[in-house]
Amino acid sequence: MSRPRINWGILGTGMIARKFARGVALSKSGIPKAVASRDWDKCKDFVGQLQDWSGVNHSFDDTDSFGSYEELIRNPLVDAVYIGLPNHLHREWTIAALRAGKHVLCEKPLALNAPEAEELFAVAREENRILIEAFMYRALPQTKAILESVQGGVIGDLRLMRLNFTFNREASPDDVRYQAENGGGSLMDVGCYCIDFARSLAGTEPVEMSALFHQHEFGVDDYAAGTLAFPNDILLTFTCGMTVTSDQTAHIAGSEGRIEIPRFWFGEEGFTIVKPDGKTVETKGKRKASQPVYALEADAFADVVGGAENWNPPENTIGNMRVLDELRAR
Ligand SMILES: NC(=O)c1ccc[n+]([C@@H]2O[C@H](COP(=O)([O-])OP(=O)(O)OC[C@H]3O[C@@H](n4cnc5c(N)ncnc54)[C@H](OP(=O)(O)O)[C@@H]3O)[C@@H](O)[C@H]2O)c1
Fold first, then answer.
1. Strands, E assignment, the chain
2. Which helix (DSSP H) or strand (DSSP E) does residue 314 occupy?
């Protein structure tokens, strides 16, 4: 397996696009080739600020700015497109980029529902391009180590998972997270991580599920709590929220121990295995400061383009969307 160099084109100049652009510049394989915004001046400013940023491996000096997404995806120098746009635009721009012959890394959740996700992977197959939903925590060495530990029986038989992903940020009707028609709400924004991780840990799809949603005055769920039951006697409880003090902990309990993770999606603190006598046997998996999350993600994407096993295969994304659909339909 060889890791190709990837010329990245980044759609959008929002919060996560900035983080990903920096990640590309710090990655081993990625070149920040182009950025596009709906507004060319905004795009120039964005790239200018990145040029001033110290700490890059690959500079932004040669990064092109585009005043439309269409122009960027038509650029023959771009190998892969990163879609850092609001959820309701993922489908349109993923299809456009794939049809233009680009590989695509699209932010989570990949689509507004499972049929849309299926459609996007069908286009990727037709175009023979890689399409990955950017659940970046899946690209962390920590996540792989936890999955291997659980599957290897380090905590005996997996029984209970308690996964939480909440943050607290000022609510605004201008924020797409608060726009129901655009795929907003806490389940879609961060609850999706809990569902994704739980399904991977259980190694199968849930057979029963339920959720309670608190409705914000802007018309979306701003926090929620839910349960999933898996056919192999494993249960999940999860919480998610956008107006709640930050809690991103995971507790994974089995018949012979448990695993505690302070921030399961970021990998800064690693994870701890606690045995039944209460003794901590190991803390491992910490991400090094030299391994920024989004740089790891960009390199992991390049690996898949180069032929490595996909760390977020289509069937996982589609399965996750099906659970999100079912929970929201209740
Ligand atoms: N993986 C992660 O760690 C992570 C973290 C946060 C968010 N996300 C995901 O990333 C995506 C973007 O989230 P974000 O927090 O970066 O959002 P954001 O800060 O609001 O940025 C979204 C960008 O999309 C563009 N855009 C195009 N049409 C838009 C519209 N109608 N309304 C608002 N923006 C529009 C804008 O860029 P231009 O004006 O320049 O075109 C805007 O800056 C979402 O899918 C979210 O779920 C992922």
1. 6-11, 30-36, 64-66, 80-83, 103-106, 131-133, 158-168, 208-215, 221-229, 235-241, 243-247, 250-254, 257-261, 271-274, 280-284
2. helix 314-329
Tell me, using a 6 A CB cutoff, whether residue 108 lines ligand 1. yes
pTM score above 0.90: yes
pLDDT digits (tens, 9 = 90+) for 90-149: 999 999 999 999 999 999 999 999 999 999 999 999 999 999 999 999 999 899 999 999
Domains of the chain, each with CATH number or no CATH: 6-135 (3.40.50.720), 141-286 (3.30.360.10)
Task: Check residues 80 and 284 and name the one with the higher pLDDT.
Answer: 80
Residue 191 is classified by DSSP as I
Give the integer Cα–Cα distance in Å for 104 and 158: 34
State the chain's mean pLDDT as an integer: 95
What spacing in Å lies between the alpha carbon of 189 and ligand 1's midpoint? 11
Q: What is the pLDDT of residue 288?
A: 81
pLDDT of residue 152 exceeding 90, the answer is: yes
Distance 22 CA to ligand 1 centre (A): 16
Ligand 1 atom index nearest CA of 69: 41
Buried b (16+ CB within 10 A) or exposed e, 219-235: ebbbbbbbebebeeebb
CA of 107 to the centre of ligand 1 (A): 9
Q: Under a CB-based contact definition with an 8 Å cutoff, are residues 16 and 294 in contact?
A: no
Could you list the active site residues? 108
